[in-house]
Amino acid sequence: MGVKWTKQQQQVIDLRDRNILVSAAAGSGKTAVLVERIITMLTDEEHPVNVDELLIVTFTEAAAGEMKERIRGAIEKALEENPENEHLKRQATLIHNAQITTIHSFCLSVIRDHFHVIDIDPGFRTAEEGELKLLRHDVLDELLEEKYAQKEERFLRFSNAYGGRRNDKKLEEMIEKAYDYSRSYPDGEGWLDSCVDAYRVDCAEDLEKSDYGNKIVTWAKAYLEEAKLLNEQATQISLEIDGPAVYEEALKLDAQTIRELLSAKNYNELSGRIQNVEWSRFASCRDKTVSKEKIEAVKDLREQVKGIVSGLKKDYFYQKPEEMAADMQICLPYMEELVGLVKCFSQRFDAKKRQENVIDFSDMEQFALQILAKKTEEGFEPSEVAKEYQDQFREIMIDEYQDSNLIQETILTSISGVSKGKYNIFMVGDVKQSIYSFRLSRPELFMEKFDTYDLEKGPKQRIDLHKNFRSRKEVLDSVNYIFRQIMMRNLGEIDYDDKAALYVGAEYPENPGCETEVLVLNTELKKYDRSIKASKQEMEARMIASRIRKLIAEQKVLDKKTGKLRPARYSDIVILTRSVKGIADIFVQELNREGIPAFSGTKEGYFATQEIGVLLDYLRVLDNRKQDIPLAAVLMSAFCGLNEQEMAVIRSSEAFEIPFYQAVENYLENGENTVICEKLKHCYGKMNDFREIVPYTPIHELLRSILTQTGYGQFISAMPGGAQRAANVEMLITKAQAFQSSSYKGLFHFVRYIEQLQKFEVDYGEASLEDEQSDTVRVMTIHKSKGLEFPIVFVAGTGKKFNVTDLAGQVIIHARLGVGMDVVDLDRRTKIPSLVKKVIQKEAKLDNLGEELRVLYVALTRAKEKLIITGTCDNLETKMAKTLTFAQRSSAIQYLDWIIPALAYIPEEIPVTFEEVLLEEIVRDEVETEVSGKIQEEILRRWDTSAEYDANVRQTLEEQFAYQYPYPKSHARKMKFTVSELKKMSYQAELDDEENALGEVVFEEPEVVPLLPKFMTEEETLTGAPRGTAYHRVMELLDFEKMYDRQTLEAEINTFVEQGRMTREMADSVRTADVLGFLDSSVGKRMRTSADCGKLWKEQPFVLGIPEQELYKDEPEGDFALVQGIIDVYFEEEDGLVVLDYKTDKVYKIEELVEKYHAQLDYYGRALEQITGKKVKEKVLYSFTLGEACSLS
Question: What pTM, to 2 d.p., does this model score?
Fold first, then answer.
């Protein structure tokens, strides 16, 4: 039975010839619908599309791979139903080269195909992250050194005003960030120029007309509208029967003040009015009948109103407009200097990358844009190359569209048909899940189309997918209830209304206990009780551990395979956190301590691990022995084995003024303690050996030599956690291999490369050993969980403060609004924020909070059956009392600032429980668990092991422990073979007359290849095994139903090369005369006859089980060994099957091949009979060298 699609899903699948925006809610099956749309297009009877006529852009390589696999599977399924469909057969071939890719991979293919357009060397490579850091650092260093040497006054003033006191780190970060943001724009230089233009304000009138002035007025009015509502609430309370009516007059004056402010038309007018605001005093209320609570409520509301107005004055109207304009003029030369530095850095960095012939990810987009679009006064229009792509692609499909940026939008629009009036862009995404602003995604691109596309038919149409096929009703109801209150257009990009809400699409059986839980650990006591040593994260982890134990004991979840409820397992549970740093490791450690298996896929502190730190110190000492601290670390490690006392002996043997490295060398020559001298001699001897090979040895090979020759590799493997340590070292070797392909070479540069990675905090995280399929609780970041789903989800760490470091500092850079600077007057030694900075600060804060809201939405929508939100809080009552006004929502500093007020009142029909957890409860649970464990331990300790408690159990245990495996030698023997290995074994056994028979696979000496100069080998074609592969490939691809002569055969082989099905080198090594000789032979003609009847099969893989006794005579009967291989070709004749094997070995007699390969053909025959159930009547060897065939039966 086929899938039943909803009406909206069916629309997505069926609609054609228009731009379509699909707003797909979490769990709405967007990927399944997208795949179905593609398959429907491929199988359309009237207008079938080829899969290579579609460009399908995904966000990650993994998503692209999964998408391609899904489409391939769907094509194969369609072929099973309609095996004669030629169009589908063609799609099955084309799918391997289909453009299902990330935007960067597509850009890369555009550059490789059209490199000549932008004059780039086609041999370029993509630079590795660490190499790019070094290149950037080198270019910046050089640029700033040059600027300091030139002593230009404007640069020096800029450096004094905004640089650091000790180094240029602040300047470097500023330049790099502005450069990165400019690269996300199609016209990066234009964006930089607009940043300067923002400060070209000569007078108050210019300020009034500026975008910044208008933005301030818009924000101010939004806050004043809230103040107006608060004033109305206060007035209403004062007019109640027991309300403070004497306050009414002052409240009316307040209302008048707010109305006047709201009526201001521009920044200057609003500034003048807000500067003159005065608040009247409340009249004294002596009436005893008036409610004290209502007096306090009115006063509180009025204070909120006053707070809003004073906050606006403090943030945006702290000076007169004329003074603001003067400040902007002070900033202008600084801004021009910064933009000049960014442009200069950009040119030099580009030149450096061209010199090294490398590109980075932003280059991919910029270069592709240069190839595909031409800049005009109106914007960008498609180039001639883009028009070729327009003709190639029938439709452009963009997955995760909410994460696109401006340059990606321009690239994809240029290759679409939009410029010709042909609408063929299909976009799918969910703005509520746009969580990649750090990659400069622009959710407003999605919202622009969301607002302008029609819901009815038209050239630009929007389709909303509301139904969620992932989660239970309880999860969806609670998520909807929370987000209806906290996500709105002014914070989060979209109003969370009925159109944005999630609707139930999945069917689940009844299961009590699935309501959403909010567990808030009240840590107020921790402020006053210093005896509590545990951190908030540790206490939260213990609270989660306690809840997990109950879930494992009581909770049931739906089993995917059986469709029935089963007890929850650890692997059903995931803990999501906002970031790994400072949380994931603590959670895993605490859960493991509580007896709950847990792992985090990404750990911190790779460079801080002992094994990596010591190994890097060893490399530092190899590079330069005159480094005391690295040398001391090496001497006290396993490389030398000195202890503290021995180190003290060395140090005290020389005067303190002498460096430690010199003291060590002197002690090595003249030391009295022979034990110390022997250790030093051994260590320094090894280092001297390694230092000799450093100049010509790749770093990864050097590392392997160090590990094996010093025994350090075995040492770390034998330490506690040895497998993890070995994996970490293996990771360093992998990084060294990546470094080897970079533009930097040598040990010195590798050490510097690693130091730069540490400096820029590029922490790779410890290598992960855990199997994600094992029965453990997983701890992962919310970003990593995107696109995944889990039966039980803990959203943890909701009490952790948001990261707002981007909002601090003298200069703030914003992707949309530009650069906000402090006004630094060096002559007066004063500093004050410019108005531009204030606006950017506010916009960046709102953007950050909007992103955090969307991150929270992603986290909550991962749960399928049970959602638990946890956090710590030390002012719970205060948070409970807050109302979710815009002012309140936009001042949040943690998730609980939204969640707690949203759940202050929970209607009965909403399946959410809110629980305040006290520290005493955590301690009590821990004590109970610990006491229970000790009691069990004591019971086991006192157990009388000599007594028999159950005779049947005793008998069963004795039988089980007495069991012996009947094939004891198998575990030490090879039990899986290729046919080639068995052929060699059989051949050797016959040669040696049982002398070496059937022991281990014999060692085959490698063929000795003489070392020839390059000029003598350039014209040589493939030989040996590669030549055999080439012949096999041709025979596999040839159509045996066709008749070939020399000309048509050569043309056919050239076609294979053009299609990418074989290389030119392979084609050149095949002699057409050999192939024609085979086709004209008797066996070739028999094959053609069978092919005409559809009874010829090529490249048949098989796995065959053979009795182990055939290989190992001393093994008892019963066990089997596996043999695997691929049969070149077999065909069927009236009286049975014929199996044939091609050979290119250099022999003089066919008998040599028979002697060598008869065992291989025997295995092929056995396998074929087992697979087909038919008799193999003949086995044939054909030698291309001799041009003759030999039958073995």
Answer: 0.74
